[in-house]
Automatic annotation (TrEMBL):
<comment type="function">
    <text>May mediate accelerated ATP-independent bidirectional transbilayer migration of phospholipids upon binding calcium ions that results in a loss of phospholipid asymmetry in the plasma membrane.</text>
</comment>
<comment type="similarity">
    <text>Belongs to the phospholipid scramblase family.</text>
</comment>
<keyword id="KW-0564">Palmitate</keyword>
<dbReference type="GO" id="GO:0005886">
    <property type="term" value="C:plasma membrane"/>
</dbReference>
<keyword id="KW-0449">Lipoprotein</keyword>
<dbReference type="GO" id="GO:0017128">
    <property type="term" value="F:phospholipid scramblase activity"/>
</dbReference>
<dbReference type="InterPro" id="IPR005552">
    <property type="entry name" value="Scramblase"/>
</dbReference>
<protein>
    <recommendedName>
        <fullName>Phospholipid scramblase</fullName>
    </recommendedName>
</protein>
<dbReference type="Pfam" id="PF03803">
    <property type="entry name" value="Scramblase"/>
</dbReference>
<dbReference type="InterPro" id="IPR025659">
    <property type="entry name" value="Tubby-like_C"/>
</dbReference>
<keyword id="KW-0106">Calcium</keyword>
């Protein structure tokens, strides 16, 4: 996908996002991880609805952290454009996600370009369905994400709705069913992200960060073993 030119007030590298209303995120299958359960850094291809490559993302952390902390591990996610320039940087600190630890819940910070924070995703305390708030660069809540009670991918999609502060659904993050063999033997996932075409380009990038956080929390397996359960228990 070529870079649109002449976009005012748009962070460098986010010009791609001004002309699209959905993204497809595909995680690369790591053969070493599939056969041995040894955690490797995740890699993702990010495309538009036409299948054109927009970005690719690479997780960055060390071997000990990946294999000791499993799905709860902290990480840096680097997002590159087609010219191999890092245009988005995401930071996920080590935290809890269960409802019994309300003071130390999950979050991810998104910067574009790297070093310039444009937004944050923060998990909200909940016993039943997962929910998140999306904050802009000054810390104001601008959107929310509401997830389902059950996040098991049983031969179907799992949808997390993106809603406005008035409760209106404006988009969604959908974990798409990728086939029985892939679901059982790997944690390589497919995601679809939809949002309004005129949504602030920074919030589009933050929704991409929310996708990586949701993947890590609910669909990343430890040693290729399913660890998810109902609600936030």
């Amino acid at each position: 996908m070529s870079i649109p030119a002449g976009i005012p007030n748009c962070p460098r590298g986010l010009e791609y996002l001004t002309t699209i209303d959905q993204l497809l995120v595909k995680q690369k299958v790591e053969l070493l991880e599939a056969f041995t359960g040894f955690e490797t850094n995740n890699k993702f291809s990010i495309k538009n609805a036409l299948g054109q490559k927009v970005y690719y993302a690479v997780e960055d952390n060390d071997c000990c952290t990946r294999n000791c902390c499993g799905p709860s591990r902290p990480f840096e996610m680097k997002v590159f454009d087609n010219y191999r320039q890092e245009v988005i940087h995401m930071h996920r600190p080590l935290a809890c996600s269960a409802c019994c630890f309300p003071c130390c819940l999950q979050s991810i910070e998104v910067s574009a370009p790297p070093g310039n924070v444009i937004g944050t995703i923060e998990q909200e305390w909940s016993i039943c369905s997962p929910s998140f708030r999306i904050l802009n660069h000054i810390g104001d809540t601008v959107l929310r994400i509401e997830g389902p009670l059950c996040t098991y991918s049983l031969c179907g999609d799992v949808e997390f709705n993106v809603v406005s502060l008035t409760g209106e659904k404006i988009g969604k993050i959908s974990k798409q069913w990728s086939g029985l063999a892939r679901e059982i033997f790997t944690d390589a996932d497919f995601f679809g992200i939809s949002f309004p075409l005129d949504l602030d380009v920074r919030m589009k990038a933050v929704l991409l960060g929310a996708t990586f956080l949701i993947d890590a929390m609910f669909f990343e397996k430890s040693g290729n073993r399913e660890t998810d359960g109902p609600g936030m228990l």
